[in-house]
Amino acid sequence: MDEMVLPAILRIAKAHRVRRAARLAELGLHPGQDSVLLLLAQMRGCSMRELAAALGIKAPTITKTVGRLVSAGFVERREVAGDQRKAALDLTAAGEAAAACVEALWRALDSDALADFDPEAEAHLRHMLDRIGQNILRGAADGGGLDGAAEQA
Predict the structure, then answer these.
(1) How many CB atoms are located within 10 Å of the residue 98 CB?
(2) Are 25 and 66 in contact (CB under 8 A)?
(3) pLDDT > 70: percent of the chain
(4) What is the C-alpha to C-alpha distance for residues 32 and 21, in angstroms, rounded to an integer?
(5) Prediction pTM value
(6) Cross-referenced Gene3D superfamilies, in alphabetical order (predicted)?
(7) Which of 17, 72, 106, 123 sits at 20 to 30 Å (Cα–Cα) from 36?
(8) Residues facing 83 on adjacent strands
């Protein structure tokens, strides 16, 4: 049987996840918190709902993650004038420093992963990965594409 592409992508994702988690631990962070810090650096003063939507995750998940970042001193919640139910999220000075470290970490991981690639090969890889992602999403929108697989089994 020919080597399938998706298992290779999953192996790469797992290797990245393990290495990223180890490096994040050095910063006192857990996987997932890095994405929140980077996004908050771009979306200063956003609401929990806006942050969850931008990350494509559910509100309970972001509530827990933000709560941990607040407890660690990386994020602060501020009351929104005129609406005590809403809170605006922002980075503290420690959060800004952590976000800068996370960005440097992501750049280093990216650079390491593409160390032997010339710029043309990098561009081609990015294009191919984008196409794979679009194809997967298109397949999900079309009902998953499992009908043919069931018939072949």
Answers:
(1) 26
(2) no
(3) 92
(4) 9
(5) 0.80
(6) Winged helix-like DNA-binding domain superfamily/Winged helix DNA-binding domain
(7) 123
(8) 80
